[in-house]
Design goal:
The chain is mainly beta. 9% of the residues lie in helices and 36% in strands. The protein has a domain of 154 residues: Chondroitinase Ac, Chain A, domain 3 (Sandwich).
Length: 276
């Protein structure tokens, strides 16, 4: 990734970044005071948004820890430097965004009608159903509306009550099926108390509201294809990562099966799997 020296920052100049690529999340916090006490969700600050903080775990696992390998297929798309602000391709590009590496050029490439990559994609999107799945050896996850029954690698999840995201990541670098520890995240939606929108589509925000944050009630039935599942324990964690309760789990047809929920008695997104 590009690097920035402390010396360059102290001089108030923008240093020249070293060649490379980076993925930047904007922004942690605009005010130091925000990190000292709970603050309502705002436009950007991750620190104030428990749901964004939960999703950071997936970003770290997939990209920083390289659980999701770069696609071997690539393509160049021509982008008009004058009209780029209005560019949109109703073409295979929108369907192949997870199957190849794309770059843009003002001189090379076509209009987005690139042929299929022919590479099996670990990320799959079903636009009609509104679902997404990620299946890699170390991280498997699903996203979808209530009623979805989705499979991704060793993970199968039946999402209930609310649109939700659920994923599980190995914490040891080993494949999920063999890992001694793994983190499971189940997230629905989070809003500020008193947050108000103009209509049910929530396109126009009229009032930010305040803390405490409110998490939408939801649940899921989960099963994992693990080696020796009878030796795996499942714990509910608080938002600081501390164990607060052991969750009942059983082995069904060789898979570890359990329930997760966001409810008044368990307002958390995080769970830990530990092999005895």
């Amino acid at each position: 990734m590009p690097t920035v020296s402390r010396e360059a920052c102290s001089r108030g100049r923008s240093p020249r970044a070293k060649p490379g690529t980076g993925l930047w999340r904007f922004a942690w916090s605009h005010d130091a005071e925000n990190v000292r006490r709970p603050r309502p969700i705002n436009y950007f600050d991750v620190q104030s948004d428990p749901l964004q903080q939960a999703s950071e775990r997936a970003v770290v696992a997939l990209f920083l820890k390289r659980h999701l390998a770069p696609s071997p297929a690539s393509a160049v798309v021509r982008l008009d430097p004058i009209g780029h602000a209005h560019w949109a391709y109703a073409s295979p590009i929108t369907e192949q965004v997870f199957t190849r590496r794309y770059s843009t050029s003002s001189a090379e490439g076509g209009d987005g009608n690139v042929p299929p990559s022919g590479t099996p994609a670990p990320v799959s999107v079903d636009r009609e159903r509104g679902t997404l799945t990620v299946a890699s050896p170390q991280t498997c996850g699903v996203v979808g509306p209530a009623g979805s029954d989705l499979t991704a690698g060793v993970l199968r999840a039946e999402l209930r009550e609310a649109f939700a995201a659920l994923w599980v990541s190995s914490l040891t670098g080993k494949p999920l099926a063999e890992s001694e520890r793994a983190l499971l995240v189940f997230a629905t939606d989070v809003q500020n108390s008193g947050m108000r929108y103009r209509a049910a589509d929530r396109l126009v925000l009229e009032a930010w509201g305040d803390v405490p944050h409110l998490a939408r009630r939801g649940s899921a039935r989960v099963s994992l294809a693990l080696s020796e599942p009878q030796n795996v324990e499942f714990h509910r964690l608080d938002l600081a990562g501390r164990r607060v309760a052991k969750v009942p789990a059983r082995v069904e047809q060789g898979r570890l099966t359990f329930q997760v929920a966001i409810a008044p008695d368990s307002p958390t997104f995080y769970y830990e799997l530990v092999r005895r």
